[in-house]
Write a structure and sequence with these properties.
By secondary structure, the chain is an alpha+beta fold. The protein is 32% helix and 12% strand. It has helices spanning 2-15, 89-106, 111-117, and strands at residues 49-53, 57-62, 68-71.
Length: 121
């Protein structure tokens, strides 16, 4: 289906005489859902997710999935989830506390559930 739509766009540019002077760029912010990070169909779209990051680390809280912790300095492509490693527990705890403080400040409706399960992130 996407190929058909791309073809329609390119055909219209050709018909308008703009094909040679037009750059067509396709981008996304959610991946192709077909194997990025070795995941197929990465999960439901309506679930609650929160993220906090520093210059060196990123922590993602997923209400319906495993949490994520990445070392952005050593792993800028976020390929190795460090969430369960004992040696990263201190970073995880700092980021979870930072996330909680922001959730409180913003009156985030996900805070109640976050408090119930944050110890298993």
């Amino acid at each position: 289906m996407l190929g058909d739509l791309v073809g329609r766009i390119l055909a219209e540019l050709r018909a308008l005489g703009l094909e040679e002077n037009t750059l067509v760029v396709f981008t996304t912010d959610h991946g192709d859902m077909m194997g990025a990070h070795w995941l197929i169909e990465k999960g439901p779209f309506t679930y609650e997710q929160r993220m906090v990051r520093t210059r060196t680390h990123k922590l993602v809280y997923n209400r319906s999935d495993i949490g994520e912790l990445y070392d952005l300095a050593d792993d800028p492509w976020e390929m190795r989830n460090l969430i369960y490693l004992p040696e990263t527990r201190h970073v995880q705890n700092e980021l979870l506390e930072s996330m909680r403080e922001r959730m409180v400040r913003l009156g985030d409706p996900a805070l109640r559930f976050f408090d119930q399960i944050r110890h298993v992130c």
